[in-house]
Amino acid sequence: MDVFQSLGAGFLVALSPLNLLYCFIGVIAGTIIGALPGIGPSAGVAILLPITFGVSPTTSMIMLAGIYYGAMYGGTITSVLINVPGESSSVMTTLDGYQMAKKGRAGAALGIAAFGSFIAGTGSVIIFTFFAPWLAKVALSFGPQEYFALMVLGFTALAGLASESPVKTIISAAIGLILATIGLDSMSGHPRFTFGSSNLLGGFDFLPVAMGLFGVAEVLMSSESVARLEIQKADLTLKKVFPTAEDWVRSRWAIVRGWLLGFVVGVLPGAGATIASFLSYAAEKRASKHPEEFGQGAIEGVAGPESANNAASVGALVPLLTIGVPGSATTAVMMGALMMYGLRPGPLLFTENPDFVWGLVASMYIGNVLLVILNMAFIPLFVRIVKIPQWILNPLILIFCIVGVYALQNNLYDVWIMLAFGLVGYIMKKLSFPAAPLVLALVLGDMMETNLRRSLILSHGSVTTFFTRPISATIIVIALLALVYPVLRWLLAKRRRASAPGSATGGATH
Amino acid sequence: MSLAAKLASVVLLAMAALVIVLSRALDYIKEGVPGPGFAPLWYGLILLVSSGLLTFQVWRRVAGVADQPLIEDPAARARVLKYVIGTVIAVALVAFIGLLPALVVFLTYFVRTEGRAPWTQTLLVGVGVPVVFWLTFGLLLGVDFPWGVLGS
Questions:
Q1: Do B115 and B93 belong to one domain?
Q2: What is the 3-state secondary structure (H, E, C) of A270-285?
Q3: Closest chain B residue to A422 measured between Cα atoms?
Q4: Which of B19, B91, B133 lies at the smallest CB-CB distance from A416?
Q5: A189 or B12, which is more confident
Q6: Domain span at residue B28?
Q7: Is there a single domain that holds both residue B88 and residue B150?
Q8: B90-143 pLDDT, tens digit each
Q9: pLDDT-based confidence at A270, cuts 50/70/90?
Q10: Coil, strand or helix: which one is B122?
Q11: Residue A507 pLDDT more than 50?
């Protein structure tokens, strides 16, 4: 079956009433989650996962993907209107978006962000449509060595690219890997670190851990402050939200660059939408004839990053679906959900579950159309939702977490585990430890260990097996470079600081 | 936050040591191939080295800095504790009075004390939201809600 036939079949799946409904729920929930400061897409996907328990994996994944890319649209609203990013990938939008709002151009900022997101999102789904099946075909030839190497790359890239502190990222990932070893060893059946507890024999389910680290911890963080959101007054009628001809001329190349850059960065493990938006903003500032306008309300500074973060969210689904290795926290949660439903993400999905893969791809075309309409016509409604006070929102999220985790296996043990990880997640946040590598490692841990041990069994215990196969060797070398990169960056920064006139060292206090 | 950072680095080191000791009790190599203790030992070593590095960084950075609690603002600390204790009590109550009544108590308490909402609004949210959850999860998705002393 060629791509067009497969996509046609996918549209038949995606256009079924139930799938359309879940796609709609997903994109609306995603927009709201993106707009609410504090709750990111990974928390949103984890918290809302339980409401898909009664439906098929395809329907579930259509909704979860909708939440993911919907959150990229929603993040713009608070960035522009309150100068607070709804989620981390919208940080760059605050720089020029809020300035535009202060000049009475909030509508134009939100409009170009919605259109840019639509163009880049849909463009990325088109690339996905043609690129993913090819990559899945390549990945069919992968053995355990390549899979192990890919997972190592995922972790080292995360340490090298995504965190302020590579050491803390490595610690977080190591804890996740250790947690993944708890329970029965999948190869020998030997119990590990169970301390005689029958509850621990099955290990830790990813959902209570993810909901604790992302959902409960977020609530505890936001409960610290009682600040009310000050929203810029803006005319958000449809006429004002449509960008003018001049806006289009100024933004067109920013959108194209954001799209391509975002997609490539999204595919890379560990990079993600936030880095894509940062890179896009830097690229636009460099490419502009008026770089001095950036930070003062340059529309390209909104169009580029917003296009990039949407493209990256689609790009991040490529490694998840084609090789079964998630590159970000949100896709790790989605992978956990897939495995919970009995599906094994990876190249075989394309041949064994074509309805699932192509239904999901088709739903992303539909979801992007829904999102651009929603984000043009109903912005005032989303602004009202953003105003929901914390004293309702926080307990509501906690109830969602409690009921959702309880629904997993109808037992309270999982709820206690979630609360424990909520506390751990809160402390991690306070001490600037990233939670994403822990969840990623918990999801990937068992697979990584199995592939490592299989590789060593095949090579009779020789680690050279990872370097004698060309693809595995290349990936391992890239992984090592990714690990060395932050050390080099740190050394260069240190040298620069030392050579700067009047440099003095100050002590941070955490 | 220096005290918490120092404590965390020590806890991480202890955790790494524990993992290494426990994984030594498992087979590292079994019948010539990696056994169940192989990966945990390496993960423990990675944690030991990285947390050792972190400990060095933390103790060097906070040397001479007065110890601060994790949450410096007392009011913020009280709010966080309120959420933690409130949630723990609500989950503990589930075993006695069931999930739905426990959620009603939990939500009513927060809406009334945090939002200072009038009683009509408090009860509307406090009872209405858990009922919506029960309709969605209990009736629609078939989740078996525990009913405690109320019976199922």
A1: yes
A2: CCHHHHHHHHHHHHHH
A3: B84
A4: B91
A5: B12
A6: 1-63
A7: yes
A8: 999 998 899 999 999 999 999 999 888 899 999 999 999 999 988 888 888 778
A9: low
A10: helix
A11: no
Q: DSSP code of A191?
A: E
Number of folded domains that form chain B: 2
Name, in order, each residue with C-beta under 8 angstroms of A1's C-beta and a sequence gap of 6 or more.
A9, A354
Note whether B57 and B79 are same-domain residues: no
Do B135 and B110 belong to one domain? yes
Six-digit token string for A170: 């490595």
Does B103 lie in the same domain as B142? yes
**pLDDT one-digit tens code per residue, A428-444:** 999 989 888 898 889 88
Q: Give chain A positions within 8 Å (CB) of B133.
A: 399-400, 403
Residue B35 placed within a domain: yes
Residues β-bridged to residue A183: A192
Residues 6+ apart with CB under 8 A from A22: A52, A55, A59, A60, A62, A63, A66
Q: Are A376 and A112 in contact (CB under 8 A)?
A: no
Q: Which of A259, A322, A273, A281 has the alpha carbon at shortest distance from A30? A: A273
ipTM summary value? 0.92
Q: What percent of chain A has pLDDT over 70?
A: 95
Has residue B68 been placed in a domain?
no
Contact B1 A431 (CB under 8 A): yes
Per residue in B47-102, pLDDT (tens digit) is: 999 999 999 888 887 666 666 677 778 888 999 999 999 999 999 999 889 999 99
Residue of A nearest to B103 (CA): A399
Q: Are the beta carbons of A429 and A435 closer than 8 angstroms? A: yes
**Bridge partners (DSSP) listed for residue B33:** B30
Contacts of A454 (CB under 8 A, 6+ apart): A144
Query: For residue A509, what pLDDT is reported?
Result: 31
Contact A181 B39 (CB under 8 A): yes
- Residue A118 CA: distances (Å) to CA of A63, A115, A278, A372: 18, 5, 19, 6
B95: Cβ contacts below 8 Å, ≥ 6 apart: A412, B146, B148
Q: Which of residues B18, B34, B63 is at a domain's end?
A: B63
Buried b (16+ CB within 10 A) or exposed e, A25-37: bbbbbbbbbbbbb
